[in-house]
Write a structure and sequence with these properties.
The chain is about 25% helix and about 30% strand. It has helices spanning about 20-30, 55-60, 75-85, 100-105, 125-135, 170-190, 225-235, 305-310; strands at about 5, 5-10, 10-15, 35-40, 45, 50, 65-70, 90-95, 110-115, 125, 140-145, 155-160, 210, 240-245, 250-260, 270, 280-285, 290-295, 300-305. Helix 5 runs antiparallel to helix 7 (about 225-235).
Length: about 325
C-alpha cells in the first residue's frame, strides 16, 4: 500500500461496467488499500430476467472487497456510510451516479474521475460512441479532479488513444479502459505527493454527449454510407444497428462504406463486383454500404456471403 508522510492512504473505488475493471485491478496490483467498492445496484437481464452482477462487483467480490450498492449518494445516511470507510481519496470510473457536494468534500485528496475522452470534449454518458460517430481518429482518457458539474472539474492528466477504422464502441472501450488504468497509476503518486497543478477546463470549447436510446440503432437508408458505417461501429455492441427484411429484423454486425457519391434507391440490395471488399451492398443516400456480417432475427450471426447462399432472393430486395 502507498505510504505518504508516514500514513497509509485509504481509498474508495466507485465504478460499474467493464470499463472500470482495469482501473480497480491496477489499484489492487499497486497495493493501494481499497477500503470499499461502490457500484450500481444489481439489475435483471436476459429472457429469464435473472439478477446479474455488474463486472466491477464480480471482481470486488472475487477479491473479498466490501461492496456497497446505494440507490443514491444523496442524504446524510449515505454520506455517513461512506465516511465510515475513512477514505482519503475516492477514485471514480463510470460509476453512474453524480457525486453530491457532501461526498466531494469528504476525502482529503478529493475525488478523481477516469473519463474516456479528451476533456473538455465529450463530457457526459456516451463519449466513446460519440467519438466514433463524429469520425474522430484520436480520442483518449482524462484524469480529472471532480467538482459539482458534469465532467467539468480541472484536469490532472491526459493520454491519447488512436481510433482505427475497425474499432467499435466495444473494442475502443477495451483500449480506453486499459489506457485509463495505466494513466491512473502514473497520476496517483504525483497527485498524492502534491506534484500536479490541476488545470481548469476551457468551457468555451466544451461539448456534451447524451445517453444512447435503444431505438437509435434503426437504420435510415437515406443517410450517407459513411455515416451508417460509423453508426454500426458506434452502436456495437449496444444497441446494435438493424434494418427490416421480409418482416424480420436484420442486424448489421460489420459493414464498410463503398462508392461514395453514387446514388441509387436507398435501401436497395445490390451485388458488388470484385474486387470490392464486400460481395453485397445496400444503396444509401450517398454511396453504397457494403455488408460483411449480418444476423437475421432468430438466426445466428454469419458472413454476408453465407447469408445470401441461403437467402437467394435477398439481392434486389428493398430493406426498410
Amino acid at each position: 500500500m502507498l505510504k505518504l508522510c508516514g500514513m497509509t492512504t485509504r481509498l474508495v473505488f466507485m465504478g460499474t461496467p467493464e470499463f472500470a475493471v482495469p482501473s480497480l485491478e491496477a489499484l489492487m496490483r499497486g497495493s493501494y488499500r481499497v477500503a470499499a467498492v461502490y457500484t450500481q445496484p444489481d439489475k435483471k437481464a436476459g429472457r429469464g430476467q435473472r439478477v446479474v452482477m455488474c463486472p466491477v462487483k464480480q471482481l470486488a467480490a472475487s477479491r473479498g472487497l466490501q461492496v456497497v450498492q446505494p440507490d443514491s449518494l444523496k442524504g446524510t445516511s449515505a454520506v455517513d456510510r461512506l465516511a465510515s470507510f475513512a477514505p482519503e481519496l475516492i477514485v471514480v470510473a463510470a460509476f453512474g451516479h453524480i457525486l453530491p457536494p457532501g461526498v466531494l468534500a469528504l476525502p482529503k485528496f478529493g475525488c478523481l474521475n477516469v473519463h474516456p475522452s479528451l476533456l473538455p470534449r465529450y463530457r457526459g454518458s456516451s463519449p466513446i460512441a460519440t467519438a466514433i460517430l463524429q469520425g474522430d481518429e484520436v480520442t483518449g482518457v482524462t484524469i480529472m479532479l471532480m467538482d459539482v458539474g458534469l465532467d467539468s472539474g480541472p484536469i490532472l492528466s491526459q493520454t491519447n488513444v488512436s481510433i482505427s477504422a475497425d474499432d467499435t464502441t466495444g473494442s475502443l472501450t477495451v483500449k480506453l479502459a486499459q489506457a485509463g488504468a495505466e494513466l491512473l497509476m502514473e497520476t496517483l503518486p504525483l497527485w498524492l505527493e502534491g506534484r500536479i497543478e490541476p488545470q481548469p477546463q476551457e468551457e468555451g470549447v466544451a461539448s456534451y454527449t447524451k445517453a444512447i436510446a435503444k431505438g437509435a440503432g434503426e437504420v435510415d437508408w437515406q443517410l450517407p454510407a459513411v455515416g451508417l458505417w460509423r453508426r454500426v461501429r458506434a452502436f456495437n455492441p449496444w444497441p446494435g444497428c438493424y434494418t427490416g427484411w421480409r418482416g424480420k429484423r436484420l442486424k448489421l454486425s460489420k459493414v464498410v462504406p463503398l462508392d461514395a457519391g453514387k446514388c441509387g434507391e436507398p435501401g436497395r440490395v445490390i451485388a458488388m463486383a470484385l474486387p470490392a471488399p464486400a460481395a453485397i451492398g445496400v444503396e444509401t443516400g450517398d454511396g453504397v454500404l457494403g455488408l460483411l456480417w449480418v444476423q437475421l432475427e432468430g438466426k445466428r450471426e454469419m458472413s454476408a456471403e453465407e447469408f445470401i447462399r441461403g437467402q437467394r432472393h435477398f439481392i434486389g430486395s428493398l430493406l426498410l
